[in-house]
Amino acid sequence: MEVNDALVQQLADLSRLEFSEEERNDIRGDLQRMITFVEKLNELDTTNVSPLLHLTEDYNVFREDKVVPSITRAEGLQNAPAANDEYFRVPKIIKK
User: Angle formed by the axes of helices 5-14 and 21-41, to 10°?
Assistant: First the structure.
């Protein structure tokens, strides 16, 4: 596949980006190298290679669900700039 100025411009338009002429030339070269690499992968014989479903041998590894101690409400509110006995107090932001 050939990467030309029209393709680079189309990708720039779709991504709503603007590039200088020098940036466009750099991008065209980078895209051409990426496409060449992917085309090179198509030359490999993968007939006896099973698909990779997971990157590791681990499957559905879950941690045990444990109740752990937490801070109390009073400890959580003690460093708040403004609070009452139960809640953080914040400035009103909704205007009527």
Answer: 100
Please give the angle made by the CA atoms of 13, 5 and 35, to the nearest 5 degrees: 95
Cβ neighbours for 88, distance < 8 A, ≥ 6 positions apart: 77, 80, 82
Q: What is the pLDDT of residues 23-66, one digit of tens each?
A: 999 999 999 999 999 999 888 888 898 888 777 777 777 888 88
Q: For residues 89 and 83, is the Cβ–Cβ distance under 8 A?
A: yes
Residues 56, 49 contacting (CB under 8 angstroms): no
Backbone torsion region of residue 72, taken as left when φ is above 0, otherwise alpha when ψ lies between -120 and 50, otherwise beta: beta
| 3-state secondary structure (DSSP) of residue 47 | coil
Q: Find the length of the chain.
A: 96
Q: Across-strand partners of 83?
A: 88
